[in-house]
Amino acid sequence: MASLFKKKSVTQLLKESKSETFSKTLGAFDLTILGIGAIIGTGVLVLTGLVAARDAGPAVIFSFIIAAVVCGFAALCYAEIASTLPVSGSVYTYSYVTIGEFVAHLMGWTLLSVYILTASAVASGWTGYFYNLVSGFGLEIPKALLTIPSQGGIVNLPAVIITLVLTWLLSRGMKESKRVNNAMVLVKIGIVVLFIAVGAFYVKPENWVPFAPYGLSGILAGGATVFFAFLGFDALATSAEEVKNPQRDLPIGIIASLAVCTIIYIAVCLVMTGMVSYKELNVPEAMAYALEAVGQNKVAGVIAVGAVIGIMAVIFAYIYAATRVFFAMSRDGLLPEFFAKISKKTGAPTFSTWLTGIGSAFIAGFVDLKELSNLANIGALLTFSMVGVSVIILRKTHPNLQRGFKVPLVPVLPIISIACCLFLMINLPLTTWMYFSVWLAIGVCVYFAYSKKKAVISDDKRLEIKKAE
C-alpha cells in the first residue's frame, strides 16, 4: 500500500525545471495570450447568447461573474504552485509531490480526458462557423461531410482537417507555432473589441428590462453552465518548463488571462443584451445575429471570419496541453517512454503531439459529444480541487520554498476553492458521473497493469529524456 503513495522529491522536481529538455521561449505576454486563446472561444461566441436566452436574461453578466469567482480561487492556487514547482504536468505533477504516485496517475489520466475532449468539442463547434463563412461566398459542402454518422452523415470533415492542421503546426515546435497562435488570439480579441465598439452605439436600455427575468435560480443555473467558458487558464501550468522566468511569468499569465477574459465576457454580455431582447438570443452565433439585427451585416461578416480564426486558438491550446501531460507522465515511467521523446529538429514531443491530434480529430469527426459534454467539466473541477489540496499540503511540508506568488489566507481560500468545485461537481448529472467513473476505472487498470511496475523515482532515470532524430 505504501508504494501507491510514493512521492517525488521537491529537489528532484526543481532539478527537472532547470533541464534543457525544452527550449525556454515563453514570456509573460506569450502565456497571457496562450491563456486568453484557451479561454475565449465557444464561451463568448456561443454561450453568452444561449445562457442569456434560456437561463439568466441580461443578468447573465452575474452568471459569468459567479463562474469567474470560482475559477479565480482556483487560479490563485494554480499561480502559487506553478511558480513554486515550474515543471510540466500541471496538477499531475503537483499531486505526485504532495500526495503520491497513484493519485498523481489518476490526475494525469483525468487531465488527458479534459484536454482531448475539449479540443474535440471545440473542433466540432468550429465546423458550424466555417460552414456559415464559406456559404456566404456561395460555396456548398455536402451535409454528409459536416455531420457525424449518428446524425445521418459520414464524418465531420472540417473538424478533422482543422485539428490535424493545428497538430502539424504544434509538431513544428513551440518557438515556431507560438507566433501563429499569438496572431490567432489577437484576431479573436480584435473581433470582440470590434463587436463591443460597434454594438455599443445600438444599445437600448429598455432591452435590459427585466434585468433578471428568471430570478436568482436562473443566474445560478447560468453560472454552472458558463463555468465551461472559463476553462483554459489551467493549461498554462503544463507549459512551465518552456517559460523563461516561471516564478514571475506563470502567475502573471494565469491571473492576467482570467481577469482579461472576465472583463471581455461582461462587456460582450452587456452590449449583446442591450442590442436585442434576450429572448432572441437563443442562437449559436449570437454576436453575428445581434449585429445583423441592427443592420450591421458587413461587421457581422468580419466577426464570422474572426470567429473561424479565433476558435482555432482554443483547439491549439488544448492539444498543446495534452501533449505536455503525456510527456510528464512518460518521463516518470507511468506511460511508455516514447511519449517523452523530443525531436532534435523541432524540440517538440512529436509522437505525443500526433497521437493527441489524431485522437482528437477522430473524436471530433465521428463521435457525438452531446452526452459527454459535462465530462470535461467534472474532470476540470476535480483537478481544480486537487490544486487547492496541493497548495495546503505544500505550505505545510515545505514552508520555506521560494514562491513567485502566494495565495492569501491559506488554508481558508484554498478550502473555499475546493468547496466551490465539489458543490458544482455534485450538481452534475448522474450520467456524467457514470462516464467519468468508467474513465477512472480504465486509468486504475492502466496503473496496476503497467504504470506501477514501470514508475521511476531516481533522478538520473527521469532526466534521461532521449531526443529522437
TrEMBL record:
Compartments reported by the entry: Membrane
Lineage of the organism: Bacteria, Bacillati, Bacillota, Bacilli, Bacillales
Its name, as the record gives it, is Amino acid permease
Supply the source organism for this entry: Parageobacillus thermoglucosidasius (Geobacillus thermoglucosidasius)
What GO MF annotations does this protein's record show? amino acid transmembrane transporter activity
Major localization listed first in the record, in broad terms = membrane
> Which is a Pfam family this sequence falls into?
AA_permease_2
Stated membrane topology is: Multi-pass membrane protein
Which keywords does UniProt give here? Answer: Membrane, Transmembrane, Transmembrane helix, Transport
InterPro entries noted in UniProt: AA/rel_permease1
Sorted alphabetically, which Gene3D superfamilies does this protein's record hold? Amino acid/polyamine transporter I
